[in-house]
Every structure is written in C-alpha cells, then in structure tokens.
Amino acid sequence: MWPLYAAGFTTAFGAHGIAANLGGHAEGAVTSLLVLGGLLALYDGAEVLLKPLFGTLADRVGARPVLLAGLTAFAAASALYVVADSPGWLWAARLGQGAAASAFSPSASALVARLNPATKHGRAFGSYGFYKSIGYTLGPLLGGVLVWAGGLRLLFVVLAVLGGAVAVWAAVAVPVVPPLPKARQTVLDLARRLADPAFLAPTSALAAATAALSVGVGFLPVSGRAAGLGTIATGAAVSVLAACAAVVQPRAGRALDDGRLTTRGGLAMGLLVSAGGLACAMLPGLAGILVGAALIGVGTGLITPLGFAALAASTPAERLGQTMGAAELGRELGDAGGPLLVAVVASFATLTYGFGALAALIGIGAVVAFVRRRAMSAVPQPGTEK
C-alpha cells in the first residue's frame, strides 16, 4: 500500500507545489494573469478530460500498468522542463504532468480498493487521503523553498526524481492485479450506472468537499489580507485547513470500518460541517478565518474516505477504474466550480457573500442527505448499512 500512498502524495504535491509558485517565480514564462490562468487551467483541464478515459483503460488492461505508465510519464514530463528550461516548454511539461496524473491517480484509487477487503476500505482510503493531504500541505511550502533555492527548474528536478522513484517502488512492491472478466457494457448501461444514487450521492459529496477545500485554500488568504492580517496569519489558516483534513481522514475511515459511523450519516455530517466552515469564513477577523478553515478541513476529512469507500462498495470490481475515474472527474468539477461560484458572486457583491452562496449550496446538499438518510432508515434493509 505504501507505493500507492506515495503516488497520492506525488499528484497532490506536484499539483499544488507548482501552482502555488508559478505566479511569483516564473517571470520569463508568466507574463500576465491570463498566461498564469492558462498554465493553471492546462493541468486541471487535462485531468477533467482524461481521468475517465484512463480509469476505463485501467479496467481493461489492469490498474498496475496504467499506474506505472502514469508515474513514468509524470517523471518524463517534469524532466522535459528541466532539460529545455524555456518558457514554451513549461506549457508542454505542465500538460504532460496533468495527463500523467490523470492516469496514475484513478489507477491508484482502484488498486487501493482491489488490494484491501471491503471491511477495510475505510481505513485504506482514509490513509490514502491522509498522504494526499500531506502533499497538498507541503506542496506550496516545500515547493516555495525549492524555488527560492534553485528556481522553478529545481522544483521540476525534485518532481522528476519523485515520480521516477515512486514508479520504481510501485513496480517492485505493488502486486500484479489482473483485470477481471466483465460483461459487455453499452453507453446506456454506463449512463444508468453513473445516474444511480449509489454513484451520484458520494460523488456529489466529494465534489462539494473539493469545492469547499479549493475555496478555503484560494480565498481565505484573500479574506485575511482584506482584514489587515499578515502573510503568517493567512498562511496559518491554510495550514490549519490541510492539517485538519489530514488528521480526520484516517479516523473517519476507521470509524466506518468499525461500524461507529455510517456512510450516509458521515457524508451528511461532512457536508453540514463544510457548510458551517464557509459560514464562519463570513465572519470578520482572524477567529472567523481560523474556525472556518478548521471546519472546512474536518468536513473534507469526513467526506473523502467515506465517499471513496462507498463508491468501491457499490461498484463491481471489474469496473472500479471507470468508477474512480468518473468520480475524480466530479471532484475536478467541484475544484473548478466552487472558486468560480465564489468569484462570480464576489464580483457582484463581496467575498463574504461568495462564501455565503457556496455555504448555502452545500448546506442544501446536507439537508437533502439527512432527509434521504431518514427515508432510507425507515425502509427495512437486509444486513447492516455501511
């Protein structure tokens, strides 16, 4: 499992490490905010388009080969900029990194599910999410140190070495998991499966959690600066958010496996806590920012392992890659849609109203989840709900 955790760390560290340092340390390549936006969107756009395709490919040829190919391609794309070291090649390297992450990210999720019994999915996805959260936390911090010490090129050197090392580690330590035989699936069959509440409910919760996380990381520092807070205070808020998410995920996974937490109840509670965090972010001053960051982190930490465990439990093993790829697409849409909603509302009113709009939207989702949970609990169910 450790190489899979390392793969999760790699994609998170690579995504946030570069994104956080492009604007201030790539002067030759980033000549305007429009160029910066394009470079940031290039990585995410590749993931939105390619994750479902690579997830389906993982089901067809096996998740391990796709994982290894993605990690190797990530290392090669990073090395491309190291060798070329020119503004034009930065675009190619960033696109290559996004495409490579689209391959090894859903493959790693599928292998986490395949290599663990259903009774331990909560722990497995909680640990996987923990190491991704560590990557998200260290990306901007360690990435900034590396760029300060040796420029953007040194950061790409580290990413090339990291991707190559994890690829070798995975090749040695991850067992071969052959693809499973599966019945022929039509487009209509796929549409029915993706429209099923067993897929839509956890995926929607994951998208909402990612939206809240992205808004917290992107806009809480803006809110702090507007309140006259320094960079240390605003940086602490983002660190609190990431730390809370990292700490809660393994605990939520263990609680699910031990029967102390149900999937429906945990997802509903996570949505409610995330909405509460965004509501607290509307309050002025450092206290509102820190409490908001902590609650967003806790809500994200609850939702992430439970959502992926629910998807794994409701998906035939031979379709895990496809499901994880589609779920990752949902998360990417939340990653883009949350900040976009807040920015649009803030442009017409203020950032406070932007936080409020997303809080209301996620709060409605929490209410729907609670109502659905009560309705389902009123229906006799065979066995024990997870």
Supply the key terms:
single chain; mainly alpha; 12 helices; 84% helix
Q: What is the H-and-E element order?
A: HHHHHHHHHHHH
Summed over residues and divided by their number, the pLDDT gives a mean of 81
Share of helix, binned: over 70%
Major β-sheet, in short? none
Shape type? globular
Query: What's the tally of helices?
Result: 12
Instruction: Note the gap between the termini.
Output: 23 Å
Beta strand count: 0
Q: What share of the residues does DSSP label as strand, in percent?
A: under 5%
**Classification by helices and strands:** mainly alpha
- Low-confidence segments: 381-386
What does the radius of gyration come to?
Answer: 20 Å
Describe the fold and architecture.
The chain is mainly alpha-helical and 386 residues long. It contains 12 helices and no strands. The longest helix is centred in the middle third of the chain and has 53 residues. The chain is globular and about 50 Å long. The two termini are 23 Å apart.
Summarize the structure.
This protein is an all-alpha fold. It has twelve helices and no strands.
Topology:
Blueprint: H1 2-25, H2 33-61, H3 63-84, H4 87-114, H5 121-173, H6 187-195, H7 197-226, H8 231-257, H9 263-280, H10 285-314, H11 320-348, H12 351-377
Helix pairs in contact: 1-2, 1-4, 1-5, 2-3, 2-4, 2-11, 3-4, 3-5, 4-11, 5-8, 5-10, 7-8, 7-9, 7-10, 7-11, 7-12, 8-10, 9-10, 9-12, 11-12
